[in-house]
Here is the input.
Amino acid sequence: MDQIMPAKSHRAWQRMLSGRRLDLLDPTPVDIEIEDIAHGLAFVARWNGQTRGDFAYSVAEHSLLVEELHGRLFPKALTKWKLAALLHDAPEYVIGDMISPVKAAVGPGYGELDDRLTSAIHIRFGLPASLPKTVKAQIKRADKVSAWMEAVQIAGFSEAEATKFFGRPNPDLIEGLDIHLRPPVEVRRDFVSRHEALLKLL
Here is the structure.
């Protein structure tokens, strides 16, 4: 009788530079480290890398901008929601940044994976596993302003085209904010520093 060989199992975890082994299908807060998040996000390019400049515009840089915009939009927001704004794209340190058309093509599996990682990251840093809808909407608003700025300043969109997709922000809101592409090591350092500063205020 022929022996039935067990089906080959596929690896669903990733080894992090901190030494942690993160299970993507069942992530736990104890395997989340901010240094891993900052490092990964500093090397993940937004806009599929289709941006002007000598360095990619990283998700870490984007996250810092979103947190700044969130603070301008909602200056009375609790510190924990500022932290949530900084970490709003944190799962992308593992799963990368997919542009919206690709997410739509992949289907609901991407969203489920993102949700599991988000919950683990939030719990690791003292946030609710799932954010209140009002807070998510506020962060999304800051995210869209950031997207408009990025589209116009570095991604080759005209202002009219960017406004069609993301809405035109109030000029006062973005006054003094310009996107400067930097080496990943600088962005990684600033992301960790901002995270530490927010944790001290909790």
Remarks:
- Residues 55 and 181 are 6 Å apart (CA to CA).
- The first strand starts at residue 13 and ends at 15.
- DSSP finds nine helices and two strands in the chain.
- The beta strands are 13-15, 21-23.
